[in-house]
Amino acid sequence: MGHRVTVILFALLAVTGALLYRAGYNPGAAPAPTGSPNDDSINPNPPLVAVTVAEVERIVLRANGIQRASLRQADSWSGQDPGLVAEFLKDVSTLRLLSELDTRPDELAQFGLDPPHGVVEIQLKGGKGTKTLEIGVRNPSTTGVYVRLGGGQVGVAGALIEWEFQRLFRKLAADTAV
Question: Which of 7, 85, 111, 162 could be cross-linked to 146 through a Cys-Cys bond (beta carbons 3.0 to 4.6 Å apart)?
Answer without folding.
Answer: 111
